[in-house]
Write a structure and sequence with these properties.
Number of domains: 1
Strand order of the largest sheet: 1-2-3
Radius of gyration: 23 Å
Number of helices: 3
Helix content: 55-70%
Strand content: 5-15%
Low-confidence stretches: 85-90
Distance between the termini: 17 Å
Mean pLDDT: 81
Shape: elongated
Length: 106
């Protein structure tokens, strides 16, 4: 993710150095029309074809991979003498003996 952000920023800098104005290009009606069409197609494909299978697969991944990993992390932390504060599917939150919160993310 960060790699793509850096590539995008460098690309914008290079285009600006070459005298290319992206704002003028994006504000052209034909470009806006094409971007809007691309957005509509993408949303249509996601909502009608990809969303259901993706949510189904994520449910399986969460049940058989993420949850067991969180349980293993909780057991390891409890063996270290710390108590659990709460757990969510995105990570496990713990409180150290000194009262300092920290996160294990899966």
């Amino acid at each position: 993710m960060i790699k793509w952000l850096v590539i995008a920023i460098i690309s914008l800098i290079v285009l600006g150095a070459l005298g290319y104005n992206i704002r003028d290009t994006v504000n052209q009606p034909s470009v806006r029309d094409n971007l809007q069409y691309g957005k509509e197609v993408t949303l249509n494909v996601w909502n009608n074809f990809l969303k259901g299978p993706t949510e189904f697969l994520w449910g399986i991944i969460a049940k058989y991979i993420v949850d067991p990993i969180l349980q293993i992390l909780q057991q390891k932390v409890q063996k270290l003498g710390e108590k659990k504060v709460s757990a969510r599917s995105t990570g496990a939150f713990f409180l150290s003996q000194q009262g300092i919160p920290y996160v294990y993310s899966a």
